[in-house]
Amino acid sequence: MRNVARFICLAALLCAGCATTGPREGGFLDRYHGSRQLAQADTMLREGDSHGAAHVLDGICSGPAVAGVTDEALFRLALLTLRSKPGSAQAQQLLKRLKKEYPASPWTALAAPVSELANLLEEQRRQNKALKGTNQALSREIGELNQRIEQLKTLDQELEKKAR
Predict the structure, then answer these.
(1) What is the pLDDT of residue 68?
(2) Burial of residue 66, with CB atoms counted within 10 A of its CB: 0-12 exposed, 13-18 middle, 19 or more buried
């Protein structure tokens, strides 16, 4: 009887307190499964299958949040996205999510300069687009001015002929 009581107490202690996880954080099985998927994505990257790796990493990011797994997956997926579409909004969103959900992660520290570079790239694109618009407007204006100069030359020549 005493052993049964000890067993019940032990079971109750294991099921409560430190043995449980919070509602947002994945448990042991989630961590194990996420780690295996992360290793699979790493293998795919080494073999050159970046599309397949991105799919696996996206699955990790969509699943339960597991510190040490999901943060690394977010970082790697953001890098893959930046490689295929430099300066993409999706990559910037992944980096923002990483910073928000895992501020103490070493992957967040690595993501900071990447995020800055992505923001700088986006700013350069905006400036480039604005300069292209300005360049087109100036080109039109130059064309109009050249046309007016030609008209003035023709008018000047006609006036010279009439003056003789």
Answers:
(1) 86
(2) buried
